[in-house]
Automatic annotation (TrEMBL):
Signal peptide range in chain numbering: none
Keywords: Membrane, Transmembrane, Transmembrane helix
Bilayer-spanning residue ranges: 7-29, 49-74
Protein name: DUF502 domain-containing protein
InterPro entries reported in the protein's UniProt record: COV1-like
Organism: Halorhodospira halophila (strain DSM 244 / SL1)
Length: 213
């Protein structure tokens, strides 16, 4: 029985990442098609619609916008449209937050030593985080100065985290990419690399019953 259990464990470790990934991709595509497909069917005759057309048109539209934004005039028009959104109640809060998040992600690799650890007061413990702000121009007075940085510390196994305003002198940079740091924090330190081979997964498992007896 132990040998059978060990063989099953190897098979599970081999297929589980692929199955979960493919299922999530399938769920995302189906969900997007349900939303976008219904919009497309309002514009074109129902007989012209085929499953997947909504997602295909959305991808083509996003690509077209990316191409058009290379032109100065259209880029200025888009910025003008954004300014209108940022003046609307409720809309400006949601749009501004999403805009800041996408801007942070797009600049992630440009910020250099932005992965740091922050000490917890009165203890030897440290918290892993990502520097999200070093400059404080345009921010409410009293939040920070030239000696302060903002550090986002994600929670493990859930969506959420804390923004710490810490003196730059107390944080210690970590030689780790933002992607690896986020993975490390979200998985409570269980994952440290972008990927692991099947052999490594088997070695990291608590034990292999198939090797016993």
């Amino acid at each position: 029985m132990r040998r059978i259990g060990g063989i099953f464990l190897k098979g599970l470790l081999a297929v589980l990442p692929a199955v979960v990934t493919l299922y999530l991709l399938y769920w995302l595509i189906i969900t997007a098609e349900r939303a976008l497909g219904s919009i497309v069917q309002l514009v074109i005759p129902e007989t012209w619609y085929h499953p997947g057309l909504g997602v295909a048109l959305a991808v083509a539209g996003i690509f077209a916008i990316g191409v058009l934004l290379n032109f100065y005039l259209l880029r200025r028009l888009w910025e003008w449209f954004e300014q209108i959104l940022l003046q609307l109640p409720v809309v400006k809060t949601i749009y501004g937050a999403v805009q800041d998040l996408t801007g942070f992600v797009s600049r992630a690799e440009e910020l250099g030593d932005q992965v740091v650890t922050v000490p917890l007061p009165g203890s030897d413990y440290r918290v892993l985080g990502v520097v999200t702000r070093r400059q404080w121009e345009g921010v409410a007075e009293g939040l920070g100065d030239e000696h302060t940085i903002a550090v986002y510390t994600p929670m493990s196994y859930q969506v959420g985290g804390y923004t710490l305003l810490a003196p730059a002198s107390v944080v210690e940079p970590v030689d780790m990419s933002v992607e690896d740091a986020m993975r490390f924090a979200v998985t409570a330190g269980m994952s440290t690399r972008k990927s692991a081979s099947l052999d490594e997964l088997l070695e990291d498992s608590a034990h292999d019953p198939g090797r016993e007896g």
